Every structure is written in C-alpha cells, then in structure tokens.
Amino acid sequence: MMASDKTQAGDIRKFEEIGTHPAANHNAISEALVFNESLGVDRKAARLRYLRDRWATRLAAHPKCRILHSADPAQSCGIGFLGLAPDGGKMREVLLSKHNIITTYMPHTEYSGLRITPNVYSTLRDVDTFCAAVETELKG
Questions:
Q1: Beta-strand (E) ranges in the chain?
Q2: pTM above 0.70, yes or no
C-alpha cells in the first residue's frame, strides 16, 4: 500500500493507491488455464482422491486416528479430514514446527481435526512423509 495524497483525505478513492501491480499474477493466468484444461477435471479429481486415499488408508489403521471424511466420490474429492486423539491443534503446531508441514486445524463442538489438502503436484513422497510425521508424533 502507498499513502494517498492529502487532497484525498475525505475521498474513498484514497484506498485505490496500491502502487505497482504484480505482473506475474496477470501473466500466469493464461498458462494456468491451459494447464488445467490439458489436465482435465476428471483426471484432476482422480489424482486428488488417490492422494487423499493414500494417507487416509494408512492413518486409518492407527488407533489414535479417525478419518472424518467420506470416501464416496459423490461426496468428496481431495480434501480430507483427520481426527486425532488427544489433540489435533497440538499436532498441527508440531507438524509445522518440526516437519514444515502445513495443515489446518478445524475445531468444532462435535468433532475436531486436521484438514489435509494435497494438490495435484503433491508427490507420493510428500504424502508418505506426512504420514510418517504423524505416526512419529503419535508415538511420542
């Protein structure tokens, strides 16, 4: 943000002073659309489900983990929800601080856990690293 001129003090347009616009965002849009179209929605959804199911299947076997998303393709795609005992909030902090893994803690009165969202560019190694980190922290 840049400071507006004094003459705009009472003018709502004073908030339009944003400086130089980043060209990279504008220039990347067409490339991103081409990539998305070449990948295709069905292939993208299949990849996201595969990655989600890879970590969910592995962690579902752990007694302190509960899978809180549906595996039904009509009800879900790549986002998964992992319930952890005793505290998912602490696990989020530990995954970030010790393993540099970003998750989102979702507290709720009926359930709480971590939202796990791999992307199409996430590798199997990334997913397996996440699982290993969770398993390691649940042991300790």
A1: 65-67, 80-84, 104-107, 112-116
A2: yes
